[in-house]
Specification:
The strands form three sheets. Strands 8, 9, 10, 11, 12 and 13 form a six-stranded mixed sheet that branches. The protein has a four-stranded mixed sheet with strand order 2-1-4-3. The protein has a three-stranded antiparallel sheet with strand order 5-6-7, with no helix packed on it. It folds into two domains: 87 residues, no CATH class; 128 residues, Alpha-Beta Complex (Nucleoside Triphosphate Pyrophosphohydrolase). It has five helices and 13 strands. Bound molecules: zinc ion. The site of zinc ion has 8 residues, from loops. Its cofactor is Mg(2+).
Length: 259
């Protein structure tokens, strides 16, 4: 990459093979620390004002200091920093996974104007991938429905979540996922907030819903256990930075206000 072709950023996230790296313990090293790496980079992408993402080739001579994304997000000091880490991670994944055209197999290159990759042969354009998901807290009186997937840490329960399917609205996805995973009907589905979730590129749309009918029956595949929990019998919960935890905290805070 020609240094004169791209305006430099003040700081850079580093990525190799779709993963973020630290350099000398620094997550976003300054420009002057990066001259040799910069000249070998595959791409420079703006993450935020003054901060870029330097996409390094597999062969780049950089010490492997892989960053654990979950701990990075957990330590973000505010929503702005969380969003920046999330964006850097997702752009790194996207760039790594769009090297070749999905239509004709030719090499993709950076689009001239947009943040996109374009096929050098057939012109297909691929923008950074975002996968919308729903995540929902189902309430029944003063209890909420929490469930655990087989891959969760021992004892951990969370709200139900799933990908939105093609042609489906977010509300339809809420009703379908809950029926599929635990066999209950819900009503009064209402939006709460959304959160970027870079594992690897979800947009989590958070909802509340009310229990309507049915007995909780985990599907045994995606969900191995589920049940109704009240404030005095909560299991191990997801970390505070997650939207799942924000749904749970918001629900119980509302109950205490109305007491
Ligand atoms: Zn193509």
């Amino acid at each position: 990459m020609n240094d004169t072709a791209v305006p430099a950023f003040q700081r850079y996230y580093l990525a190799k093979s779709g993963r973020l790296l630290a350099l000398g313990g620094e997550l976003t090293p300054r420009l002057r620390q990066l001259n040799a790496l910069r000249s070998a980079a595959e791409a420079e992408i703006e993450v935020d004002q003054g901060i870029g993402l330097l996409v390094l080739p597999e062969t780049a001579p950089v010490p492997e200091e892989e960053v654990t994304l979950r701990s990075l997000l957990a330590q973000a000091k505010d929503e702005q920093e969380y969003a920046r880490h999330s964006r850097a991670a997702q752009l790194a994944t996207w760039h790594d996974q769009h090297r070749y055209c999905g239509r004709c197999g030719s090499t993709m290159r950076d689009h001239a104007q947009d943040l996109a990759r374009q096929c050098a042969s057939c012109g297909l354009i691929q923008y950074p991938r975002i996968s919308p998901c729903i995540i929902v807290l189902v309430r029944r009186g003063e209890q909420c429905l929490l469930a655990r997937a087989p891959h969760f840490a021992p004892g951990r329960f969370s709200t139900l979540a799933g990908f939105i399917e093609a042609g489906e609205s977010a509300e339809q996805a809420v009703a379908r996922e809950i029926m599929e995973e635990v066999s209950i009907e819900v009503e009064n589905i209402r939006f709460f907030a959304s959160q970027s979730w870079p594992f690897p590129h979800q947009l989590m749309l958070g909802f509340f819903a009310d229990y309507k009918a049915g007995d909780v029956q985990p599907d045994g595949i995606e969900i191995e256990a589920a049940g109704w929990f009240s404030l005095d019998n909560l299991p191990d919960l997801p970390p505070p930075f997650s939207i799942s935890r924000q749904l749970i905290d918001h629900f119980f805070a509302g109950l205490q206000v109305s007491d």
